[in-house]
Write a structure and sequence with these properties.
This protein is an alpha/beta fold and about 425 residues long. It is built from 14 helices and 20 strands.
């Protein structure tokens, strides 16, 4: 008996056949119907927002407005909803010259104009000022103070000086912050490098190890999330509009309104969508990120790796399908691979913290817990440096995995790994 399926790999599809007699099944996010009438849904979100007066009533002639928009590594369907926001601003007497779209790059690379246009849509790109955030450009940054824990909140000057800041993005799982979207538009989105580092450092325990609450799908007691919330309070965004995106890039939900209330509503939706209970842990897990842009580079693909590990027994094998067309994602990551001992890496990370060092550290911990195979376009020597085994086809991956776990391993398939959080039992946590 065999099971056939296809997996996304960048912009193409790969066929896969699973022959194990112990196939446990396909782990998928809960089925949800895409929004059918987007025009109606966007208008309703703006007119009847969560915990906020209607969008139009928050704006007045003379306001300068900054709309924070995610970069191309996170599909948000911004090109579909931004025209509505811009038209509403114009209707309230705010001209195009007083509007800026600020791309929340965090520590990511700058976007080209063609990439910016692809994100926001051609019409908006032709009308509105587009600006890449640069976390290291000191003249473009300003301090708003510190959080209660002393984290410096240094953000993009244009946003800090705007009359109104509007957050946009998408809400999904995040392996450290619990959920993406919402407050992440500020830190790391438009923050100084040192602010990004300080917030990410909260994911480590004060003395040793990773903080147990800094994990996917969890906000309660999550120190990274709490720090981001405190930072966002200092900005006091006027409005938030976030989408929840399906594996096929349809919009499943739009949440809009008060930046806290709407964000939490979106998190509850994602929680119900993405958490998948397990019957048991498997010997072998095959996981695809779900294609572009989720597998644009290894740092983004690592999120799928992090979630999929929850379905795997210790000592098992995991096949990660992630093209990584743009390589690792940041050269800092590669420098951390000089450490092959997690304790040594953690010690250095505490001395000289780098965000991508955290990802390298998390990758090494996983590679010591299980055998990981990566089907990608990364050079073999780079993959091996991560203590991961490179493979060049699914057939090769299966053959090597079976040498470790046998011919009929307990097996899960996860075609959309960036949207699935396997858990041994469902937990009713308050969000």
């Amino acid at each position: 008996m065999s099971f056939k399926a296809t997996l996304s790999y960048h912009c193409k599809r790969l066929e896969i056949t699973i022959t194990s007699r112990n196939f446990l099944g396909v782990l998928l996010p809960r089925k949800a119907t895409p929004i059918q009438d987007l025009n109606l849904a966007i208008a309703a979100a703006l007119d009847r927002p969560v915990g906020s007066p209607p969008f139009d009533s928050l704006l007045q002639k003379g306001d300068t407005v900054v709309i924070i928009v995610s970069d191309l590594s996170r599909y948000t369907a911004a090109h579909l909803f931004l025209p509505f926001i811009v038209r509403r601003l114009q209707r309230r007497g705010i001209p195009d010259k007083d509007i800026t779209i600020l791309f929340s790059l965090g520590i990511h690379r700058a976007m080209t104009f063609e990439e910016q246009k692809a994100v926001v849509g051609e019409t908006v790109a032709e009308r509105i000022r587009l600006q890449n955030h640069d976390c290291r450009s000191t003249e473009d940054l300003v301090s708003l103070g510190t959080t209660g824990n002393g984290t410096p909140v240094i953000i993009n000057r244009r946003a800090a000086e705007a009359d109104k800041v509007i957050l946009t993005g998408s809400i999904g799982l995040h392996y450290l912050a619990g959920f993406g979207g919402g407050r992440k538009s500020i830190i790391p989105g438009i923050a100084a490098y040192e602010s990004c580092v300080a917030v990410h450092l909260r994911a480590l325990m004060p003395a040793k190890g990773r903080h147990p609450h800094a994990c996917a799908g969890n906000l309660q007691g999550n120190p990274m999330h709490e720090e981001m919330m405190d930072a966002c309070e200092l900005v006091a965004p006027a409005f938030l509009m976030n989408t929840v995106i399906s594996p096929s890039d349809d919009i499943l939900e739009i949440v809009a309104g008060n930046w806290k209330a709407a964000f939490f509503e979106g998190c509850r939706f994602v929680d119900s969508l993405c958490k998948v209970p397990l019957r048991q842990k498997a010997d072998l897990v095959i996981a695809s990120c779900g294609g572009f842009p989720r597998d644009i580079n290894f740092i983004q693909a690592h999120k799928t790796l992090d979630y999929a590990m929850n379905a795997l027994r210790s000592g098992g094998a995991l096949i990660l399908v992630a093209a990584c067309k743009e390589g690792i994602g940041n050269q800092d990551f590669l420098r951390w691979l000089r450490f092959q001992n997690p304790l040594e890496m953690e010690t250095e990370l505490r001395r000289h913290y780098q965000i991508n060092g955290q990802t390298a550290y998390a990758t090494l911990l996983k590679a010591q817990r299980a055998k990981i195979f990566l089907l990608s376009e990364l050079p073999d020597f780079v993959v091996r440096k991560m203590s991961i085994t490179p493979v060049h086809s699914l057939e090769e991956a299966f053959a090597q995995a079976q040498c470790l776990v046998g011919d009929n391993p307990l097996t899960y398939l996860i075609p959309h790994g960036s949207m699935v959080f396997p858990c041994e039992e469902t937990t009713d946590q308050e969000i």
